[in-house]
Amino acid sequence: MSGATGARRAARWRSALRPLTRRPGGDERGFTLIELLVVIIVLGLLVALVGPRLIGRVGQSKTAVARAQISLLEAALDQYRLDVGSYPDGAQGLEALNRNPNVTGWNGPYLKKAVPRDPWSNPYRYRCCPGQHGEYDLWSEGADGAPGGEGENADVTSWDSAQK
Questions:
Q1: Which residues pair with 137 in a beta bridge?
Q2: Are 87 and 52 in contact (CB under 8 A)?
């Protein structure tokens, strides 16, 4: 009797588990719960491994954009100097590239659009006549908006030839 009873119990368990693994009517399309869990775990591992690398690349690309914008501003400042005979002073600032500061020879605007903000939405810093590192200093203070820093918070400057 124990063999027949065991067979009946096994049959009941199989029939109880079928709704979890198959659709009614013998149609075996779809995924089991275990297959879905495996896929979710694999996706979670991929996000955990790849996510931090992508976030680091965003910081690097913002630094590259800041360098490119500084080069653009340097070219505009050089054109201003060719026309006017000097760079805009500290009071005139970078706005002199788009608005005539009432100086002789101004032939601007020297930028197609308004003076850009750095990739972290901070204004570019400009010091002139003279700057501490050359005729003028032009820089972004990085993501933190404060002098110095490392990584994404590092300053991006016009005078550091290693950055160019």
A1: 127
A2: no
DSSP 152: G
- Per the CB < 8 A criterion, the answer to whether 142 and 153 are in contact is yes
pTM above threshold 0.85: no
Q: Tokens 């800041």, residue? A: 66
End-to-end CA distance of the chain: give it in Å, rounded. 88
Please provide the size of the chain in residues.
Answer: 164
Domain layout of the chain by residue ranges: 55-164
Tens digits of per-residue pLDDT, 7-36? 777 777 666 655 555 555 555 677 788 888
Pairing of strands 136-140, 125-128: antiparallel
Q: Please tell me the CATH superfamily of domain 55-164, with its number.
A: Glycoprotein, Type 4 Pilin (3.30.700.10)
